[in-house]
Hints:
Two copies of one chain form a homodimer. With 187 residues, chain A is mainly beta. In chain A, 12% of the residues lie in helices and 47% in strands. Chain A is built from four helices and 17 strands. A six-stranded antiparallel beta sheet of chain A has the order 3-4-5-14-9-12. In chain A, strands 11-10-13 form a three-stranded antiparallel beta sheet, with no helix packed on it. Chain A has a two-stranded antiparallel sheet with strand order 1-2.
Amino acid sequence: MKxxxxxxxxxxxxxxxxxxxxxxxxxxxxxxxxxxxAEEMIKNGDPLVYEVIYADIPEEAGHLxxxxxxxxxxxxxxxxxLTKGHLHEQLGTAEIYLCLRGKGKLLxxxxxxxxxxxDMFPGSSSYIPPFWSHRTANVGxxxxxxxxxxxxxxxxxxxxxxxxGFPKLVVEEKGEVVLIDNPKRSR
Amino acid sequence: MKxxxxxxxxxxxxxxxxxxxxxxxxxxxxxxxxxxxAEEMIKNGDPLVYEVIYADIPEEAGHLxxxxxxxxxxxxxxxxxLTKGHLHEQLGTAEIYLCLRGKGKLLxxxxxxxxxxxDMFPGSSSYIPPFWSHRTANVGxxxxxxxxxxxxxxxxxxxxxxxxGFPKLVVEEKGEVVLIDNPKRSR
Lengths: 187, 187
């Protein structure tokens, strides 16, 4: 394999050449608390929630996967747009999120039951240690754009979080960004 | 281990909190072709060539090391300031360089004898595949700043390159940046 460049536009999040995955409200509706509101939004144009653009890297040990993520500003009810989130199939592998634009909350939960949140802002580089699942909310008024680097053979497990949700939700209350307990998790 | 942020200033390369390594001409004089000129520069103030600022990450499998590198503009004779360069002790591990500021040339050599060069510019993300050694020259008028991500347990072998040099040198000739054969390697 030969060395190569991809080019990243820090203001749009474009990564070129890259392969894009697009998520609209209809693709991720189950992760929001207010399902009725989500259905209404789907009928009214089904807005983009986020996009991920992957560089073409072999999914093999020794390689480093990388991608940009663009989360658009918006809410479903009072809950901010966010990514599905994932655990790595190889649980013991870290990930790095370098924020390029916007304002975010990175939510994480460890396999032994801890949770944590970090602020994302231009220049923040968040370290997601091995054994922490992670999902990201855009809590600002513009696109949240960040660059992700991970072990290329880490694998992605989306199902666990889809079923369980996260311990906390990121919502707007009285104009403030707050974390509240996820009622699905306290049942 | 808990998740944590470091903060990177894209215009200065500061990474905070971080641990800084500083290289002056006296620290890296052996890598330049024009040793006499290097000795003269050491007597006249021994200028900074580059700095590396590391985030505090365990050097263990599953973790991702990361750092910023700041290469100052300058030359020793006609040869541009550059990093010592290294191979990974674990040869089969990749590295990523995301350029934040300035203009660079990334030189690489594979363990089976190929060589390659990539341009670095703001937004370029260079993929250094497993089994390629790498060193970087600042070919511009301002600091060259980039963010590096690597397998935290990769290890660094500086000695091989210090002994052998690289197949190519990055020099200025008639105001142009050119790669020339390294006379030490063609002997």
